[in-house]
Specification:
Blueprint (H helix, E strand, L loop, with lengths): L2 H28 L15 H8 L15 E4 L23 E6 L3 E3 L3 E6 L4 E6 L4 E6 L12 E4 L5 E3 L4 E4 L4 E13 L2
Antiparallel strand pairs: 1-7, 2-10, 3-8, 4-5, 5-6, 6-10, 7-9, 9-10
């Protein structure tokens, strides 16, 4: 094949389209273009109309929220918890713990670890060597919190009774009914 013919062959194929295109211009002026559902009086460019309809609306209000959760991990107690630890009787070593009233709130940052205690109580081990028990609301079991819990951090940085929800890793969701401080006696 002649190299010049190979070069001009694509252009020769386009020639019938160019000739037919002049006839199509005359037909286009006679028949309105666009979708059939479009009103005849609307002669705007469809691409401009479509691009303006999908433009994001101007925001009148912007809200930025921040949600922080704190995970309190399980921590072995400083000593094993005998079943009689919370009873009034002294155990073999002469150690006994008495629960005394504490406030309604405990600082989240002060909690070093947690361990489930008998019944519906959690033993909170604090960073300053104190221990608290958190009594959970009825229907909650402390065994659900064997791997710690997650709590939403508030502005004041405290876990308070009746306000905050403790979420266990197993899915249990409980509120704290009361806090008590454990004090060792009989040493």
């Amino acid at each position: 094949m002649n190299p010049a013919a190979a070069l001009f062959a694509p252009f020769l194929l386009l020639l019938p389209v160019a000739v037919a295109g002049t006839d199509a211009v005359a037909e286009r002026e006679a028949v309105p273009s666009g979708p059939m559902s479009r009103p005849a009086g609307d002669e705007g460019d469809p691409w401009v109309t479509m691009s303006t309809s999908y433009r994001p609306q101007d925001g009148k209000q912007v809200r930025i929220e921040q949600h922080v959760t704190v995970r309190i991990g399980p921590r072995p107690a400083p000593m094993p918890l005998p079943p009689t630890m919370f009873d009034d009787d002294l155990d073999n070593d002469g150690h006994r713990f008495v629960e005394r009233k504490a406030g309604k709130c405990v600082p989240i940052a002060g909690i070093f670890g947690v361990q489930s205690a008998p019944g519906n109580r959690l033993l909170l081990i604090m960073r300053d060597q104190r221990m608290f028990t958190a009594t959970l609301k009825k229907g909650c079991n402390s065994r659900d919190f064997y791997s710690g819990f997650i709590v939403a951090k508030n502005e004041d940085g405290l876990i308070c009774t009746g306000r905050d929800q403790l979420l266990s890793r197993s899915g249990a969701n409980c509120q704290v009914d009361s806090f008590r401080e454990l004090v060792e006696v009989g040493r």
